[in-house]
């Protein structure tokens, strides 16, 4: 029960009975819809043996695994590079020198406003690069810019007294940053960083569009095989749980971390807004 | 510059495609997102579970996979629609999950006391919702919805690779015609900037007009 919503009071016996009735009706409707979907699947012969046998073959399993491996490879590269790029750009945006700050701002704002796919295609088509580097470059530019913004807001949201105290102790600007602000900010930013990595993981599937041989590509190859009666739906039914599962695991990790952090004294001095990125709007919500 | 002037109609067509996709999918996403948000705050457990499942699954689905499944999968069930409609469906459903979360967060920012006060004044559920809760929630959801819709406009680029007319897809034709590929992309980028900046401008106006007075 969502305690403390402004919408309704805690229901009494009558309301509870009514809600139970609604609940039964709603459950019935949802079940009917699900049953309809399952019926449709059977009706269009999606569960025939011919369409599922390919998954028993070693070659096909290996192909799927190779695809998954390529997806993860692209993700790891993109994640590492975008963290690095994000760090560099954040340094630029926090710099005391105005030209550096402006340049970094320009880069960050431009790449946040562009669709990732435009960058990936630009690198792939115009610069004639291999699919993997093109994908990684595109993802890095976009996620790096978004992460730069996250880092910046994280460092800025460390309580003012921390910085002042450090300066009063005679630390120089770099020391204040590396010993005081960044360690506190990074701990507080962890959940936001991880949720941005989920976006990067999801976006690796864009590699499919530039013929990078990733998970979806492997699926497409199997699905277009006439020998197995074009097993498109079975392929989707196998691929999507794996994709969604991976992303969900990472999202849950972020949520778990955020929850743990709320109790940790180490991040007391930082109040990171749910600063989710990828927008031109102030006070943004989560970015799809 | 030549690239743009020679192919103005092609670019215009692409830009129009992107705008159409964005507008239709936004409408679908807002409607679906509203329904799902109301499910998620409903006092009925099964509706809440359905809303939660919808949001969790769609938020963690790569959009390319969704496009792949919808545009190439639904025809297997004998559902044959124009590709643009399929694209709107995929984009709209995907974005609805994010809209739903924004709306729910907005409703949750309304203090419990507001609803209690409204009810103690004798307002019915409909009145509480329409006169007290939703107007206040509306103010705080403008910025997150704006950024979600900007993201939607950017995501619409994926549709181009599934043979829907839109801005990014124009590069193929221009490439074949032998135009300078870098300039082709520069103008595509400008087109996207126009779309995203206009959405941003619209929502800035909304925010100024109705946003939370801070």
Quick summary:
The complex is a heterodimer of chains A (288) and B (214). Chain A is mainly α and 288 residues long. Helix content of chain A is 71%, strand content 0%.
What does this 3D model show about the protein?
- The complex is a heterodimer of chains A (288) and B (214).
- Helix content of chain A is 71%, strand content 0%.
- Chain A has helices at residues 13-43, 49-52, 58-93, 98-113, 116-126, 131-156, 160-168, 173-203, 215-223, 232-262.
- In chain A, α3 crosses α6 (131-156), α7 runs antiparallel to α8 and α8 (173-203) packs antiparallel against α10.
- The radius of gyration of chain A is 24 Å and the shape is flat.
- The relative contact order of chain A is 0.12.
- Chain B is built from ten helices and no strands.
- Chain B is flat, with a radius of gyration of 20 Å.
- The model of chain B has no long low-confidence stretch (mean pLDDT 89).
- The chains are: A mainly alpha (288), B mainly alpha (214).
- The interface between A and B is large, with 63 and 77 residues.
- Chain A: This is Glutamate transport system permease protein.
- Chain A: One of its GO terms (molecular function) is transmembrane transporter activity.
- Chain A: Its main location: membrane.
Number of domains of chain A: 1
- Give the overall silhouette of chain A: flat
Quickly give the structural class of chain B: mainly alpha
Helix content of chain A: over 70%
What characterizes the major β-sheet of chain B?
none
Number of strands of chain A: 0
The CATH topology of one domain in chain B turns out to be MetI-like fold
User: What name does CATH use for the topology of chain A?
Assistant: MetI-like fold
Sheet with most strands of chain A: none
Q: For the terminal residues of chain B, how far apart are their CA atoms?
A: 45 Å
Continuous helix count of chain B = 10
Low-confidence stretches of chain A: 274-288
| Sequence of secondary-structure elements of chain B | HHHHHHHHHH
**What's the CATH architecture name of chain A?**
Orthogonal Bundle
CATH superfamily of one domain in chain B: MetI-like
Quaternary form: heterodimer
Membrane topology (chain B): Multi-pass membrane protein
GO molecular function (chain B): transmembrane transporter activity
Pfam families (chain B): BPD_transp_1
Protein name (chain B): Glutamate transport system permease protein
